[in-house]
Design a protein that fits this description.
Helix 1 runs parallel beside helix 3, helix 3 packs antiparallel against helix 5 and helix 5 runs parallel beside helix 7. The chain is globular. The longest helix has 29 residues. It contains 7 helices and no strands. The chain has one domain. It is mostly helical.
Length: 199
Amino acid sequence: MVDQDIRPEKRRLVVFSDVFIAIVLVVMAADLRNVLPMNPTRLIDWVPEIHRLLTYVLGFFTLGIVWVNHSLLTGALEQATRGMMWLNLNLMFWISFFPVSVRLLGRGDALEHGAVIYGLVLTAMSASIFSLRAFVRARNRDNPDMVALSEVSTYRSGAAFLICAGSVPLAFVSPWISIACFVVAPALFLFPESRPVRA
């Protein structure tokens, strides 16, 4: 049995993850300053960069969906463990690459390569989320909240991983097929399971 005094606190995991994801979102927003017109006088001034704005919107909502579901998962935890902390850190590592992949996908002159990089980062994030959910589910079989939250979400995570992984080779066929995958994969988690209320 692990000594309670040296077991990492759940609160630290939650706060670290929330702050980290918030910083990544700020970095993504800051990138808009370099690509969008600062003093647009006409609506048409936005047209040349509209694809970058749409890519930012896609990236923002993708990361937002990750944050909502991650918060729901960690919020139902009773105790963080060392293994959980490492798996969560692995997820944060891949999330740190997300702004770069969003920037590359938004470049209209290299859409194929941008789709490949974005797909690789999204695949790594999906694999990390799947691993984290599977670990939490295995370690919390006696917690009804965790079982209810993780059972369907684990299958969703697996499906999202397959979609993201498939988007990488599909980018060489058509980047637009990959972009469709980038929309579908996070949409699987758009409506997370509600935490059951104990009687």
